[in-house]
Each structure stands twice: as C-alpha cells, then as structure tokens.
Amino acid sequence: xxxxxxxxxxxxxxxxxxxxxxxxxxRQRGVDAVLLDRAAEGANTSRAAVVHARxxxxxxxxxxxxxxxxxxxxxxxFTVRERDRVLLTVEFGELPTxxxxxxxxxxxxxxxxxxxxxxxxxxxxxxxxEVTGLTQDEDGVTAxxxxxxxxxxxxVVGADGMHSIVREHTGIAFEGDAxxxxxxxxxxxxxxxxxxxxxxxxxxxxxxxxxxxxPGGRHRIVATVDEAPKEPTAADVQALLDKRGPKEHPAVVRxxxxxxxxxxxxxxxxxxxxxxxxxxxxxxxxxxxAGGQGMNTGIQDALVLAEKLAAVLNDxxxxxxxxxxxxxxxxxxxxxxxxxxxxxxxATVGSPVLRxxxxxxLRALDWVPAVHRxxxxxxxxxxxxxxxxx
Length: 390
Prior knowledge:
Blueprint: E1 7-13, H1 17-28, E2 33-36, E3 50-51, H2 53-59, H3 65-71, E4 73-75, E5 77-82, E6 85-91, E7 102-104, H4 107-120, E8 125-126, E9 131-136, E10 141-145, E11 150-158, H5 165-170, E12 174-191, E13 198-202, E14 209-213, E15 219-225, H6 234-244, E16 252-269, E17 273-274, E18 277-279, E19 285-286, H7 294-315, H8 323-347, H9 352-365, H10 369-380
Parallel strand pairs: 1-2, 1-11, 2-8, 5-13, 11-18
Antiparallel strand pairs: 3-7, 4-7, 5-6, 9-10, 10-11, 12-15, 12-16, 13-14, 14-15, 16-19, 17-18
C-alpha cells in the first residue's frame, strides 16, 4: 500500500477516466490534488469505448487528444437499422469541429493515456484506499478511510461511480429508475462483410443492439436482453446477432475477447454540490449506453470543475464561482439522460404497427438535413458547448 499524504487542496475519489481527467487538469493548473481509489489496481477491460468530438476538444487542455486519436479508430458515422434496412444515417463529417467523427478506443487504453499524463504532471493514483466517511465544516472536509486514517482537504470530488460513497455521505438524492432489462457487453472477432467505418444501432422488438468496430480488428457488441448471462459466450452473442443483426451479410462470431453484463439506470443527482463536496461523472448521472455518451459527459464535467476549482484556489475567485459548475453541467446531463431514454424506448417498440410507423418516420427524417445535423450535434455533444450558443 502506498503512503498517502494527510492533506491536499482537493481530494478526488475514484480513478476512472473522470477522476483521472480531473486530477490531471488540477495538477497541470498547479492545484495540490490527490487522487485515490479503493481498487488495488485499475481494471484492464475495454468497457466504455466511444470518445465523441466535444470530449476530444476539451481533452486538448490536458494534452492527451493526439495520443487517443493515434491509438483509436476514427468512425465517421452512426446508422440506425432494423436488420438490413437503414432507417437513419448520422454523418459526423460536417460537424463544426476539428474532430468531425467519433473515436472508438477501449477504456483501458483511455485510462492508460490519462494515467501517464497525470504522472507527467506530478500526480499518481493512490491505491487501495476506501473512504468510509465524510464530514465537513466551513474550512474543509475530513475523509475517514477504511484503515482509520483521516485526510483533510479544502474540497472533495466524488468520481466514484453509480454506487458513489461520496454521494451517499452528502445525502444528495439520486433520482430516477432502472431499466428492467440487463445488457450484454462483449468484445469479439467477427467474420462478416459489414462496414468497418460506422457504428450500427439495430432496433428490434427484443431490444437494442449496438455493433461498433474497435482497433485491432475487434468489434464491440452491446445488447439489451431480459436477463444477461454473467459472462456471455460466443454462442450467446451469435444468437443475438442472428436474431437482430444483418441477414443479407450475417455476422459470424469467431471468438470472444472479453465479455460482461450490467444493468442500466437512468438517474440524475438532485444536486452536484453539497458544501465543499462535488459529484462528477457516474456519481452524478447514469443513463442508457445507446449513444455512447456516459464517459464523455463525465470527462467534460471533470474539466469544467477543474477550471472552476483552480479559479477559486489559485486566483482568489469567490466560492460562489463553484456554484456555476452545477448550473452549467447538470442541464447537460439532464438532456443526455432524457435523450438516451427516449432513444432506448423508440428502439424497443414491440407492436408491429408501431414499429412500422416508427420505421416510416425515421426513413422520412433521413431525407431532412436538419435532422442529420441535430442528431450529430447531440451525439457528439457539441450541442452542449456554451460557446456554440453565444
């Protein structure tokens, strides 16, 4: 176990992409920030694999965007399909950004790049340290750790996921519900004639299925099912693709590199701040993975919060500056939660009549350029950039 400092200006709890981005940005700005995580080591699995344009823009601030692009796979479009029929195409090529595409890169690679950058600016991940209590007064926050140690910080940020211990200790409500279905998540090698330059979102009465290319010739499969097996096999994934995927050029699963299951909630924290304690990422918002936006929204939270904390700690800005974090970022998460929830419900319409109406409407909308742009702006999260609304 590493020796842990006893104090810092900012204590960041949770060393996923959000916590790593936040700690890196703070250290780069000269803020004394300590990052800790309760796990003995980082997870070496791909999990979140989509990095959208707005996230690539903000990550330039901590100098990791170029390496992410170098190690990722550039994908210029999403398509919405029912079996072989394309219902809607979302092209990113005309987006007003230096990154007119979505980037597919496994989360473990993203975390590796972020960790290396954190270390370059003098930081590290302190493991394994579990927070069991938080108390605060007008001067700061005291975190109690599982080993009995006490850590003093002027501010604390919970980037510790959906089951956030930080959120629990603030008493902030996590409002929303869980989807009844569970999700299959698998990285596989496929034999098929499908395009390698698009993310395909297949609608079916049984659930939504995403097929996305990954670096190294792999594909990511995400699918809703009534009850997912603990470790989905090649046969499980093959059955899903046979029932929901392309028929004219069927995909054949050659092997499974990694697989898992999870349940999805659509929840939003009632507040992002409780005194000197803040929430970011999945501790503040969770939603359907249909658009691949969860990690992206969280990383953007982190870099906005880092800027505001540095303004207070370094530049003497009033504490009220920090209230703008929730004002700016909570409506973004509210929009993403609503957008992905609607997308999930539209994808899983069961009635044949309603499915026919939905498909007819989507094909009609596919001819409307404004629809393409709106969808692309929403998925890329460029629509959340305040500067683009001035």
